[in-house]
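Hi V.,

Quick status before I head out on leave. The structure for the redesign project is tokenized and pasted below; the design run finished overnight.
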């Protein structure tokens, strides 16, 4: 469930916003002054902040700026003054949206939902972009198909990369050469399980410090190989 923090000193407004958001299925907390709001926004794990501009103590400008220094949580700033909204928009404080009070609670709910969805997409696509496996100095970017050993990039052939990425994606799982061959090479291709041995040897030469004592791909005698976690 998405958790929302409302920082608002006018309790009637805060209560109204809270009621509507809770009815829409959100978990909501309210802070009635700037200091409490800032502390909670920085420490808590919220999915979105609704931030009033004029607050006793620390104002909305400052809260927005400080939160942005540390977090990407979506922020909707609200103010009773249209002029203030224009001003903060111009300052580029990093708020995601601005609303002038009074606004209808359903409009607030709609915007909250839109920002949460947008943020999820953003996080989701960032994850998509970087499918990276990192184990003890070995870094494999499975999307860009690049490999680094202690920060130094190494070049791999297509099959070498496929084999390494497959093993690293299934750490501690022991695979037979037959299994690896059918996984990485299509069955029509020329070759046999000796191909697997040859490729493992080449991969080790690129990633292992000492190929006679491999730290990543371990030989399980009589069975096959496993990637050590
Ligand atoms: Ca206020």
């Amino acid at each position: 469930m998405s958790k929302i923090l409302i920082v608002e000193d006018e309790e009637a407004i805060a209560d109204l916003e809270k009621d509507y958001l809770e009815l829409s299925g959100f978990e909501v907390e309210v802070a009635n002054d700037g200091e409490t709001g800032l502390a909670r926004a920085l420490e808590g794990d919220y999915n979105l902040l609704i931030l009033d501009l004029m607050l006793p103590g620390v104002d909305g400008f400052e809260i927005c700026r400080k939160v942005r220094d540390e977090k990407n949580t979506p922020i909707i700033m609200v103010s009773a003054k249209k002029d203030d909204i224009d001003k903060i928009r111009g300052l580029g404080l990093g708020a995601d949206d601005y609303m002038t009070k009074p606004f209808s609670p359903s409009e607030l709910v709609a915007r909250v939902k839109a920002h949460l969805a947008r943020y999820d997409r953003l996080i989701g696509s960032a994850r998509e972009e970087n499918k990276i496996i990192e184990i003890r100095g070995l870094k494999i970017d499975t999307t860009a198909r690049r490999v680094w050993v202690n920060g130094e990039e190494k070049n791999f052939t297509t099959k070498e990369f496929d084999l390494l990425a497959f093993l690293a994606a299934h750490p501690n799982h022991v695979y037979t050469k037959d299994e690896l061959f059918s996984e990485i090479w299509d069955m029509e291709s020329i070759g046999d399980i000796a191909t697997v041995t040859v490729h493992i040897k080449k991969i080790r030469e690129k990633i292992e410090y000492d190929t006679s004592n491999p730290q990543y791909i371990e030989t399980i005698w009589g069975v096959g190989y496993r990637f050590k976690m």
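Above is the designed sequence. The mean pLDDT is 90.

G. will cover questions while I'm gone.

Best,
W.
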